[in-house]
Amino acid sequence: MDTKESYAVVTGASQGLGKAFVEHLARKKINVILISLPDQNLKELSSELERLYEIKAHYYETDLSVHENVMKLTKWLNSSFEIHILINNAGLGGTKKFTEASSDYINTILQVNVAATSLITHQLLPNLLRQPKAYILNVSSMAAFSPIGFKTVYPASKSFIHSFSRGLHEE
Ligand SMILES: NC(=O)c1ccc[n+]([C@@H]2O[C@H](COP(=O)([O-])OP(=O)(O)OC[C@H]3O[C@@H](n4cnc5c(N)ncnc54)[C@H](OP(=O)(O)O)[C@@H]3O)[C@@H](O)[C@H]2O)c1
């Protein structure tokens, strides 16, 4: 497949697993679009990937816990790029007694892990489907397979990702 003009989108690309994904893709000569929260050195990382691996790299800084941001991001992606790989990696959790967690804490986990993953996939699918070959990787967790007290919402959100991915695969 000629992927010279096509891109891989990776959410949560500033650090951890997401950063490892973009480095690996760039090494394989795949153009990348890095997404994460503002002020996480995405500009520097994109430039470094372009220089080291002679690929094209773009970046977009946004808070994926906000619905309008997700819609703006996907609009920009669809109007600017052909996309043949989507890696929904951005995700967060934490350890807190459920009754002591703030509603913001719970909402952010649900919005990023569940809503952003589902909506980015939904909005980018027409773009992915028009490519000769395309791939989606949703990062779940071993936590998907077992409830964990004091984490509670995180494992439940990863069970969603697991079920969502299998359902989508069936379609
Ligand atoms: N680490 C593990 O042991 C482990 C195990 C199983 C599954 N996972 C899953 O693997 C994925 C990556 O984990 P990791 O450990 O590599 O995480 P990490 O180092 O904390 O990185 C998380 C990434 O997600 C981004 N992110 C978080 N909240 C965001 C938001 N509201 N809007 C936009 N981006 C946001 C972060 O951006 P910023 O840098 O801008 O904050 C960062 O780039 C997650 O889905 C996690 O649940 C991790």
From TrEMBL:
UniProt xrefs under SUPFAM superfamilies: NAD(P)-binding Rossmann-fold domains
Keyword entries, A-Z: Fatty acid biosynthesis, Fatty acid metabolism, Lipid biosynthesis, Lipid metabolism, NADP, Oxidoreductase
InterPro entries: NAD(P)-bd_dom_sf, Sc_DH/Rdtase_CS, SDR_fam
Pathway field: Lipid metabolism; fatty acid biosynthesis
Protein name per its UniProtKB record: Short-subunit dehydrogenase
Species assigned in the record: Chryseobacterium sediminis
